[in-house]
Amino acid sequence: MQTSNIPPRKAKKKRRIWPWVLMVLVFISAALAGAYYASNSLLEKPVEKKQSEELITAKDKATIMIMGVDERDDDVGRSDTLMIASIDPKTNQASLLSVPRDTRVKIKGHGFDKVNAAYAYGKEKLSQDTVENLLGVNIDHYIIINTKSFKKIIDAIGGIDIDVPKRMHYEDPWDDDGGLIIDFQPGMQHMDGAKAVTYVRYRDEEGDLGRIRRQQDFMRACMDKIVSPAIIPKLPSVIKEVMDSIQTDLTFRQLLEFAGTLKQSKENGLKTDMVPGRPLYIDGISYWIPNLNKLRMTVADTLGVSLSGKYKTKMEADIREYENSIPASASEVPASDTSIGKARPSDSSKNRRREEKADKNKRSEDKNIDREERTRNSEERGNREETSRSDRRQSAPSTDNSGDSAVPTPSTGVSKTR
């Protein structure tokens, strides 16, 4: 955690505004410079982290692990929210892959367990290693946000406006300081930090999968707020809260580029997805069992990486190991267990179908336009030739000998031959 180096103010000194104004101007200048002259420092791979040759590496994209951690005074905590962001600063495109916290993974030194347990075993390093082995890709950076920090950041940007899809009510007198109360009416709601953290934590009969969908909607709402002109006056406090609240290996410059790319990607459409899989009951515990083949093919496609034969062989071995690790006693999750929820097509799947349909329509329109252009050119060429023939006929010598057969003029004959 970073601490502020700003010295305490003297009681009798007049408050000076210019340092804050200067900070705003510097931030805006840096953001504008990044937009026009970005050197893409996000693409610089961390030299202190060795890239595994068994995993794929994105050459022209940055991969960032974002974890929301629920830490308590008497508990090291677990990752309550886990997302992998793929950022392309050259094309200003971004995608977000959510990993359900109940995903069953292999954790080095601890066997198979839920992915959120990796943080409790070995903090962010073991979490990153575990997620890399799950996805089959090297992850460049990480961002960790705890519950208290999350509240401060949301308050710093002035809260979030989000459309609550349905009535949400939950009470737990034993949770948090003084108990947890989640109470939202359906419709557009403005949420401060305290309300926002309960919204993203809310889990009902839709389980963790339903919560992930709400978290992805919340991320879009955050992007709307962060890129809005109204945030500019709040930049000094936002910068301070973000830098003091998060734990990351990103530099300040890279954070600026990250924010700038998110701003541009909003216009291009933020793509969201979730680890594909199915729920399963193992030894009385519900897990999310990932479809490793589909997952890794999707990740490779998102990163624009072609899979080598060596990587495919390793992937097949990983899939066999994973499938063999599932005990024969595993069963379907009982209907009464709603902790995970039911999978349904993700927003990104719908977006992909919509984009594919739009591309197909555009190709069809282009073909029609091309066909019409060719027809029009052909008609114009025919009209020009007909006009040329008519002009030549009019300029040819004429006779009054109507009894003789019409003899083609030389120019007419040549035209017909052509």
Automatic annotation (TrEMBL):
Domain of life: Bacteria
Pfam families: LytR_cpsA_psr (PF03816)
Membrane-traversing stretches: 20-38
Keywords of the record: Membrane, Transmembrane, Transmembrane helix
Region listing for Disordered, in residue ranges: 328-418
Biased composition (Basic and acidic residues): 344-394
Signal peptide: none
Composition-biased stretches (Polar residues): 395-418
Boundaries of every Cell envelope-related transcriptional attenuator domain copy: 78-227
InterPro entries linked: LytR/CpsA/Psr_CW_biosynth, LytR_CpsA_psr
Family: Belongs to the LytR/CpsA/Psr (LCP) family.
Listed name of the protein: Transcriptional attenuator, LytR family
